[in-house]
């Protein structure tokens, strides 16, 4: 992502995200960051839903993984099996999920 104005990054409140090196890289690449972003942002991060899909697929296909190599192979298979409509639906529901979190002042939502 060389000098791409207009990119905005959503990231949690993990300390590594706020390291000087990370901040310098983002600034150098002209990548904005949504601030502040709560450490626990129930239902607002689309990648959490993708991880859920990958996890379910991996458990269904390989319930007894023996090592990291098998895990990587299983996750790669799950990633390749993702249906674009699933990702599209997840991304398109982000606004509704964020509105639900705002409406509950950060509390529990149906998502």
Automatic annotation (TrEMBL):
Record InterPro entries: RNaseH_sf
Superkingdom of the source species: Eukaryota
Database matches in Gene3D superfamilies: Ribonuclease H-like superfamily/Ribonuclease H
GO MF terms, alphabetically ordered: nucleic acid binding
Entry protein name: Transposable element tcb1 transposase
Natural source organism: Plakobranchus ocellatus
Organism taxonomic ancestry: Eukaryota, Metazoa, Spiralia, Lophotrochozoa, Mollusca
């Amino acid at each position: 992502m060389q000098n791409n104005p207009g990119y905005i990054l959503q990231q949690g409140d993990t300390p590594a995200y706020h390291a000087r090196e990370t901040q310098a890289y983002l600034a150098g690449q002209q990548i904005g960051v949504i601030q502040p972003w709560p450490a626990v942002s129930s239902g607002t991060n689309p990648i959490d839903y993708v991880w859920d899909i990958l996890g379910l697929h991996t458990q269904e296909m390989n319930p007894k993984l023996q090592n990291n190599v098998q895990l990587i192979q299983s996750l790669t298979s799950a990633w390749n099996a993702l249906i674009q409509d699933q990702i599209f639906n997840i991304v398109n529901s982000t606004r509704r999920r964020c509105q639900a979190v705002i409406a509950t002042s950060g509390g529990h939502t149906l998502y």
